[in-house]
Structures are given as C-alpha cells and as structure tokens.
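Supplementary notes for students who missed Thursday's class. We covered one full example, reproduced here. Read the sequence, then the structure, then the short commentary at the end.
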Amino acid sequence: MLSVTATDVPRVVLDTSVLISYERHWLWSMAQLGFFEAVWSTFIVGEMVRIRVESGIARNTDRSVY
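Structure (token representation):
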C-alpha cells in the first residue's frame, strides 16, 4: 500500500457540483484512502443544501428524505 505523509497529500476543494454529482462516491473513497484531503467552505455546504432541497421539492420528495 502507498504510504504518504500529511505534507505529501494535496488539499482539494470540492465544490457543490462535485458534492451532488454521481462521481462523489469515488471522490470520497479516494479522500478516505488518503490520496487527497477534501476541503470545502460553509458557503459551499449551504449551496449544496439549497440545491438538494430545491431538487427534492421539484421531485415531490418527502421532506424527511432531504
């Protein structure tokens, strides 16, 4: 297994388009395996929540799901 130190790992900003995309699962897996450190801001998280809520409303999803 590849061994890396904290200084070797790049920090990667994950924006809303990544956090809600279909590719998010393998990106999270890569971060957990130590290939990069995922970072985001409270603004990005707020935007992600807004988009998920709007998407849920548009699909008539029960509010408890989103």
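Commentary. The radius of gyration is 15 Å. Helices lie at 16-19, 24-32, 42-58. If anything here is unclear, bring it to office hours.
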